[in-house]
UniProtKB/TrEMBL annotation:
GO biological process, one term: glyoxal metabolic process
Keywords for this protein: Repeat, Signal
Domain of life: Eukaryota
Entries under Pfam families matching the protein: DJ-1_PfpI (PF01965)
InterPro entries: Class_I_gatase-like, DJ-1, DJ-1/PfpI, Prot/Nucl_acid_deglycase
Signal peptide: 1-19
Record-annotated DJ-1/PfpI domain positions: 19-66, 177-338
Name of the protein this chain belongs to: DJ-1/PfpI domain-containing protein
GO cellular component, one term: cytoplasm
Protein family: Belongs to the peptidase C56 family.
Source organism phylogeny: Eukaryota, Viridiplantae, Streptophyta, Embryophyta, Tracheophyta
Length: 358
């Protein structure tokens, strides 16, 4: 909440002397003007307040209830698959556990030599006696937004490798996560996944499957990708994560380039995942769930060939992770953080966002 808005709310609370809550670090500022209450969502008369990113869904549902009544709030919240015990630690169902690790060496696109390579390939770090002297700054690739350029720029353990199709130099980057979006993508799922992973300091590239960077999400929210998928597909990734939304999932399923990236990910035994409609509409029909346990949006879980774990909120089976809907997205993203960076980091983010009790 900005300073001006906070002062406005405080003046309003002072007049009404209502109970209120906010992010824990600012609770003392409430004291002179209102009754400070340590609740996740506080409704007092016409004043509704909440604590942080992890309480936002509860806050939004409370606003719906105040405006339109309990029945409408239930109609909105039930399909979101929200948690009943909001402050509790999240739980994941893990089968066939394997360690997820980032590849410290830069990654190459599949070996398909161009007719005339303009740049001689450099060996990955693991094939060099010493990495010193081989790292170099690479100009920002044409057409990338600043966010994508930052994510795709060489890290301290990267070298320049050629694009397998054009032979032009592109930066090989480790610790890279791809999150595709498309018209009809579920905006809460996309934004929460990106947000939580970036809080964990992961390099996240948001790629539009459509022909322009800006997409119109399922609830008419406009999202702007870092890069088009055509550009993003020149790189390989440590993890690919699909948000849901019926329209977005259908666009993913129809994207040959994205499906090929997912198939390469599975063939390389590298992590990939999906939430909501995407496990049922993207992974299942393309054979990416073969031999795997998964979950999906409740109304679509009957499309899964194996529904034995479909009632669980987050399911990890080896290098695959799936989840159910908007209300499970924070748990889904935290589970990814836990697999990549450890439970301590995941719980740290869960507490600072107020998803669980601090």
């Amino acid at each position: 909440m900005g300073g001006f808005m906070l002062q406005f709310v405080l003046r309003l609370l002072w007049r009404l002397r209502h109970g209120a809550t906010c992010y824990p670090s600012f609770m003392e500022q409430l004291a002179p003007n209102a009754i400070a209450v340590e609740s996740r969502v506080q409704v007092d008369g016409k004043v509704v307040t909440s604590r942080g990113p992890g309480t936002t869904m509860e806050y939004a549902v409370a606003l719906v209830e105040q405006l339109y009544g309990k029945e409408k709030a239930k109609e909105v919240s039930d399909p979101m698959v929200m948690r009943s015990n909001h402050a509790d630690e999240y739980v994941i169902t893990e089968l066939n556990p394997v360690e997820w690790t980032f590849d410290d060496c830069p990654k190459r696109v599949r070996e398909r030599k161009p007719k005339k390579a303009k740049t001689k390939p450099l060996l990955p770090c693991c094939e060099l006696r010493s990495c010193e002297g081989h790292h170099r700054q690479t100009p920002r690739p044409v057409g990338l937004t600043p966010a994508a350029a930052a994510a795709l720029s060489p890290s301290s353990h990267s070298v320049t490798t050629p694009d397998a199709q054009t032979g032009s130099a592109i930066p090989g980057v480790s610790d890279l996560i791809l999150v595709p979006i498309a018209n009809g993508t579920e905006e809460m799922e996309a934004v929460i996944i990106i947000d939580i992973l970036r809080r964990a300091k992961a390099n996240v590239v948001v790629a539009s499957v459509d022909d322009k960077l800006e997409i119109l999400a399922s609830r008419k929210v406009k999202l702007v990708a870092d890069v088009l998928l055509d550009e993003a597909a020149k790189f390989s990734y440590d993890l690919i994560v699909l948000p849901g939304g019926i329209g977005g999932a259908q666009a993913f399923a129809n994207s040959e380039k994205l499906v090929n990236l997912l198939k390469q990910q599975r063939e390389a035994n590298k992590p990939f995942g999906a939430i909501c409609a995407s496990p049922a509409l993207v992974l299942e029909p393309h054979g990416l769930l073969k031999g795997k346990k998964a979950t999906a949006f409740p109304a679509l879980s009957n499309k899964l060939s194996d529904q034995s774990e479909a009632e669980n909120r987050v399911v990890v089976d080896g290098n695959l992770i799936t989840s159910r809907g908007p209300g499970t997205t924070i748990e889904f993203a935290l589970a990814i953080v836990e697999k990549l960076f450890g439970r301590t980091k995941a719980l740290e983010i869960a507490r600072t966002t107020l998803f669980i009790s601090p």
